[in-house]
Amino acid sequence: MRPTLPHGPAFIFLDSIQIDRDRKKALACYDWKPDHPLIRDHFPGHPIVPAALLIESAAQAAGSLWMDLMIKENQPFVLVAQVERFRFFRPVCPPERVTVEVQMEGAFQHAASFAVVLRAQETTVARGKILLARGYLPP
């Protein structure tokens, strides 16, 4: 299924997502292409996906999962509140498909924490934790 996110199409870094509500888990993927406008100049001739964009794709997967689990009308936006202990083991070099696995570890009134693992070619490229918070964007 397509992720449900408040982002515009140029800033969605998930092609698809599968949500397991019972296990509070999601598996998403995104095919990074060498001509993607945000990475084609990072670095010309040898594109590498910036770490911040990999974290963003993980946050989008976690946000999609949390929003799906909340199932409320007039849901607020889900925003990144904290990025913890992220480690990167190797660069992602397009064209590469990255899978993002997120597991909700805890939910509170206005926040939720998620363990994240990103893989490319069945190899772990990054892992860490993300804390999301419910909030509203200014008008």
Folded structure, characterized:
There is one protein chain. The chain has a six-stranded antiparallel β-sheet, with helices on one face. The model has no long low-confidence stretch (mean pLDDT 90). The chain is built from one helix and six strands; from the N terminus they run ββαββββ. With 139 residues, the protein is mainly beta. A hairpin with a 4-residue loop joins β1 and β2. It has a single domain, classed as Hotdog Thioesterase (Thiol Ester Dehydrase, Chain A), CATH 3.10.129.10. Helix content is 14%, strand content 43%.
Explain briefly what this protein structure is:
It comes from Candidatus Methylacidithermus pantelleriae. With 139 residues, this protein is mostly beta strands.
